[in-house]
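Input chain follows. Return structure tokens only.
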Amino acid sequence: MNHGRLLLTAGAVSGLLTVALGAFAAHGLRQQIPPEMLLVFNKGVHYQGLHALALLATGIMSTHRGSLALSIAGWSFLLGILLFSGSLYLLAMTGSRWLGILTPFGGLSFLIGWLSLAIAGWRYSRP
């Protein structure tokens, strides 16, 4: 199954949320949480933005020629955003340190996504 439309949509929504969350951090959180927690929140925004672009690239490739490697890459990027960035957002806003246990799993998901995208790119050929 070709997941190109889903990945393109997820990438665009993630990009939109990146801008919204970045603005929220700059204007709404700056006075509400300690500076070190603002840095944590912004790290989540940064990684979400990078991987929104990765989702878009994966979606574009998938619309031309879907593959298992592209599907794995897309789902891994989505899971990474949820676990890595999501855990950093919650950690920054709640101070609950136990959420930090999720962050490395998000990072691992990002790594799997990039490796899968590299494999798909290596195998990629124009129709």
